[in-house]
């Protein structure tokens, strides 16, 4: 069959009613534009909010939790074996938070094919001394290079240079909130007290702004060596091992394995931050529903224009059938009209949607809690353009389906007899 | 004796309105290659209905219709469309030209659908048909810029484009004045005599009928003469 002839006829019918056709196409364009704009923006927002947590959170964290032992002495006693033993008010024993044998553990993890990076860390409780006032706080002892490679540390260091932690002895990067309370500028020397009572002076080399004010009021960063020194620990002391995986979804499974293998506690990112997943999926759901609703409305526009066209073109359909076009040919002509409205309107919509995204991407968006963000976030993923394009073709095809079928079933005799 | 190209055997058709009203009763006829036949009869006697059945557009009848010896019963809608496209040209009382296309393109459409020749050749052939009917000057106009007589001649050219086995007309001059009717009639006459075209034309014009080779007269759904 000659599709080009059917397309030719479709085009002629379409151009004869180009104003209405254009209105129908604009409906599709509008909905696809909104669909792309909305999804790109929402997804950008999701990435941003997820990034707040996910970028900086290890996929698996190994640590030693303070908790009561699962096996109490009575469970080990042979004569009470086979009984149910109830022990009330169990207390944890004095166990250090250090991870023992961390050097071989890190070496083993680094050779694991599923792991993309490992960074050791020390979490140290301290007091920031401001005159006579002491504020509780936390100093994270980190390997600045690894921390930056795995968790984009420098994005959050808003003043100073994170590498000074390595180059300047006894240096600290203060949380922005801590620095404000201590009135500490870069280059100043501050004093902290450790839980054991040692007083130590540290030089401020930068500010840290995570975007979460609660964190910035408490946490600061120092190198591992400095932290070990202020805690009075040896140079093998670390409390956490942060692991980044190649595939984030494997985290829960691997966390369980490492827990057994290394006899430590392990928490995966999914367990630690389950609320963020929920927020993201609900935002996507809302965007998709709005986009699809708009498309359905546009679909009705196409349905209307086609019905009107068929009503007007009864005579033409009758003569086409009388001169040898089959019902199927007529069906194809009207389906082609519907699809070309969808493809034309959809393609324009994709282009405008991209334009809208670019515009949103340039709207200034400054918030003190998000230091690295200067404009509204947009995710330019090709995925949304593919989905938008597919949806526009699909809806217009469905909108054209019933009118086209109706046209294909028109009985030429009844039309011709009516004249 | 030339060959039979179209034949009916005991065709019966009725409408349910609301009781059964027979419209075609026991129609048996044969049409030979090159015949110029007119069909006459009072209004409502079933002439149009007969033509719709013979042209394969109406399939709701009893009896047999054979075109070139081939049974039409049992063919699918798409197969019948092909039969109409290849073998039957139809001219109605109304011209049914598509205003979206030029006169030339209107004539070309059934030819393009058949696809026997290249588009370029179909265009030449369409132009020839228009020339034969004396309206080649109007080829590039839109149908709505033409007079009634001209439109009807375009419709005839369209019916002729695939060199059909038979051209059927349902009161093709019914909407035309005397002068245009004469032109259209002469056109048919010329097609019959010069090109040996088989024609089956319904008319209420007895003068027209008298000038054809053979006249079929109908009365209340039956063929009473011819
Ligand atoms: N769809 C229909 N339903 C019922 N009766 C019909 C229908 N179409 C035609 N008829 C009847 O069939 C008869 C023949 O009609 P027609 O073939 O148009 O006659 P003619 O063309 O000879 O004037 C008429 O009596 C007409 O009323
Ligand atoms: Mg009639």
UniProtKB/TrEMBL annotation, chain A:
Keyword annotations: Cell membrane, Membrane, Transmembrane, Transmembrane helix
Domain (ABC3 transporter permease C-terminal): residue spans on this chain: 290-412
Bilayer topology annotation: Multi-pass membrane protein
The keyword Cell membrane belongs to this UniProt entry's keyword annotation: yes
InterPro entries in the record: ABC3_permease_C, Lipoprotein-release_system, MacB_PCD
Main subcellular location of this protein, as a coarse class: membrane
Transmembrane segment boundaries: 21-42, 285-306, 333-360, 384-402
Single Gene Ontology BP annotation: lipoprotein localization to outer membrane
One Pfam family it belongs to: MacB_PCD
A GO cellular-component term linked to this record: plasma membrane protein complex
Residue span, MacB-like periplasmic core domain: 21-257
Localisation: Cell membrane
Family from the record: Belongs to the ABC-4 integral membrane protein family. LolC/E subfamily.
The name this protein goes by in its record: ABC transporter permease
Annotated organism of origin: Dyadobacter luticola
UniProtKB/TrEMBL annotation, chain B:
Coiled-coil parts of chain: none
Swiss-Prot/TrEMBL keywords: ATP-binding, Nucleotide-binding, Translocase, Transport
InterPro entries assigned: AAA+_ATPase (IPR003593), ABC_transporter-like_ATP-bd (IPR003439), ABC_transporter-like_CS (IPR017871), MacB-like_ATP-bd (IPR017911), P-loop_NTPase (IPR027417)
GO cellular component: membrane protein complex
Domain of life from the UniProt record: Bacteria
Record keyword Transport present: yes
Gene Ontology molecular function: any one: ATP hydrolysis activity
Residues in ABC transporter domain copies: 6-226
Keyword Translocase attached: yes
Family that this chain belongs to: Belongs to the ABC transporter superfamily. Macrolide exporter (TC 3.A.1.122) family.
Protein name: ABC transporter ATP-binding protein
Organism: Dyadobacter luticola
